[in-house]
Write a structure and sequence with these properties.
about 260 residues; alpha/beta; Undecaprenyl pyrophosphate synthetase; six-stranded parallel sheet; 10 helices; 6 strands; about 45% helix; globular; binds 3-methylbut-3-enyl trihydrogen diphosphate; binds magnesium ion
């Protein structure tokens, strides 16, 4: 009959299947596969990056609509500087253009922009555009979009260790007082909770120097879809998968139930 619960459940959209009270606070995404997506269409790699921007828009919108508080997107790694010069330049231009074009939408949707990484290593126009966009959106409170730019986790950890060593040298801190919290506070993500869910597209099953410390207990979700094909429904699917997992943090299943 119509009232059959299971039937109704099958008819529910993916979005409706999400349990809003069990939403991850922070989702991190390694947006991978732009180049291969473009190659599949017989196009240049940059065409893949351009289409990847549409997926960024989709992911940000979906996260904000659901009420995900933080969305971190791995946009350019420290290692990506080693790509052919033309691709790096094209990526940086795309970045400047996109940030500039999207700032009004971020404001309209009450989304705050943040960036993590070695931002000083970015080209001047890119750095300035980013600073302006962060300034213009700093009071927004619905969702924080964190762009990882010229970011790598080892770079971040080396930086944190240098800062901590300096504090010890200056006698602001004693080495015996160093805790996990000290490390957290000295990372670029100091004021951001750790991601509960990390998604990587394109079928690669690796972390590629992304948030190594912060992902210690994240649920990892991999999809074969290339980033330009990753849309809202795909994000919903990842969240539902996450919600069906049991996060034990070292405990036994029985302990979690009692
Ligand atoms: C991800 O797509 C975007 C960046 C790393 C900037 P890729 O450019 O890595 O695409 P593939 O992995 O070569 O297909
Ligand atoms: C990771 O993707 C970095 C970003 C998505 C920005 P890559 O395509 O650079 O990673 P590898 O080289 O496959 O590990
Ligand atoms: Mg790649």
């Amino acid at each position: 009959m119509r009232s059959n619960g299971r039937m109704n459940k099958n008819k529910m959209s993916l979005k409706e299947k999400i349990n809003l009270s069990k939403l991850p606070k922070h989702i991190a995404i390694i947006m991978d596969g732009n180049g291969r997506w473009a190659k599949q269409q017989g196009a240049e790699r940059i065409y893949g990056h351009e289409n990847g921007v549409k997926s960024v828009r989709d992911a940000v919108e979906a996260a904000a609509e659901l009420g995900v508080e933080y969305l971190t997107l791995y946009a350019f790694s420290t290692e990506n500087w080693n790509r052919p010069k033309e691709e790096v330049i094209a990526l940086m231009q795309l970045l400047v253009h996109t940030i500039n074009a999207e700032t009004p939408t971020l404001n309209k949707n009450n989304i705050r922009l943040k960036a993590i990484g070695d931002l000083k290593s970015l080209p001047g126009d890119c750095y300035n555009e980013l600073q302006e966009a962060m300034e213009a959106t700093k009071n927004n409170s619905r969702t924080t979009l964190v762009l990882a730019l010229s970011y790598s986790s080892r770079w971040e950890l080396v930086n944190a260790m240098k800062q901590i060593a300096e504090q010890v040298e200056n006698k602001q801190l004693s080495s015996s007082d160093i805790t996990e919290e000290t490390i957290n506070k000295n990372l670029c993500t100091a004021d951001i909770p750790e991601p509960e869910l990390m998604i990587r597209t394109s079928g690669e099953h690796r972390i590629s120097n992304f948030l190594l410390w912060q992902l210690a207990y994240a649920e990892l979700y991999f999809t074969d879809k290339f980033w330009p094909d990753f849309k809202k429904e795909d994000l919903y699917e990842a969240i539902i998968d996450y919600q069906n997992r049991e996060r034990r943090f070292g405990k036994t299943s029985e302990q979690l139930i009692s």
